[in-house]
Design goal:
By secondary structure, the chain is an alpha+beta fold. It has nine helices and seven strands; from the N terminus they run H-H-H-E-E-E-E-H-H-E-H-E-H-H-H-E. It starts with 20 loop residues before the first helix and ends in an 18-residue tail after the last strand.
Length: 280
């Protein structure tokens, strides 16, 4: 049963309740796409020039694809500015867990008209899996100086604020009351705090990070200019801290942070209360 105001239980074309992604994935393709299209912000469709329910542009080119295999509890939505473009403008992957939670596995939103930074490959051009298999320092420097966060290949479209209410409403309409995620970086965790998430695991770590970036803290003392990612003053912004953490300034790698959001409840967590706003 949905709990958000003006929201209702999601039903299939026959009026039967839908309570999971696995149930949606049993529908025929047209109905499945109709259901999952609820997750697409209107501004994304405007950017792509997609109208109606065809998921095509004015030239009739299909720009949005839904990958939702029958029998599996997951969906992937990919939107491109051109049909064969290797870079997605919007990439979303969701799954529902055995505990009746909605897992936000990935949400990547890119501005297709912004410059590209090859931080997703090593210096030999091999996929580095979010820098876990090598880094591309020259490209990371370019990205950092352009104001991007670690692992960002393009500037975003500032669309997450449009997307997240749709995800919360969609989750609620399935009768699911918790959204869970694993932020891949410090800046992701801070961003999720803004949207009302709390920590299943990692809150103590986040508070420790804030404490150790204060004057006298061990991370503060390591902002010694030894690399471009460890310059004095970087402790004051989310961007600066993120790049320093990405550069290995912590005693252990960033890992195993898990977060959750109860539908309709903003947790009010802020583990970096003294941050300065980014200068773009």
């Amino acid at each position: 049963m949905a709990i958000l105001p003006h929201n209702s239980q999601l039903l299939d074309a026959g009026g039967r309740p839908l309570c999971s992604l696995r149930a949606i994935n049993r529908l025929d393709e047209a109905e499945k796409e109709r259901v999952y299209s609820r997750l697409l912000p209107q501004r994304l469709l405007d950017v792509l020039g997609v109208g109606g329910n065809s998921f095509c542009n004015s030239a009739g080119q299909r720009l949005i694809s839904f990958i939702a295999p029958e029998g599996l509890p997951l969906v992937r939505i990919e939107a491109r500015s051109k049909p064969q473009d290797g870079v997605t403008v919007f990439f979303l992957e969701l799954s529902d867990t055995q505990f009746h939670q909605m897992e936000l596995s990935f949400c990547i939103i890119r501005d297709p008209d912004s410059p590209s930074y090859a931080v997703d490959v090593d210096e030999a051009g091999r996929n580095n899996w979010f820098a876990s298999q090598g880094r591309n320092i020259p490209e990371e420097l370019r990205a950092m100086r352009a104001g991007l966060f670690p692992n960002q290949t393009h500037h975003g479209l500032q669309l997450f604020a449009n997307f997240f209410p749709l995800l919360e409403c969609f989750t609620d309409s399935l009768g699911i009351q918790m959204i869970v995620a694993e932020p891949l970086s410090y800046d992701n965790a801070i961003r999720y705090e803004k949207y009302g998430f709390d920590y299943l695991r990692g809150r103590r770590l986040m508070l420790e990070i804030d404490r150790e970036f204060q004057p006298g803290g061990r991370y503060f003392s390591r902002l010694d200019g030894s690399t471009p990612f460890r310059m004095p003053g970087m402790e004051r912004t989310v961007n600066g801290r993120s790049w320093a953490i990405h550069d290995g300034i912590m005693d252990e790698p960033w890992d195993e942070v898990q977060i959750y959001r109860i539908v309709g409840v903003h947790a009010g967590i802020n583990t970096f209360p003294g941050r300065e706003e980014e200068k773009r």
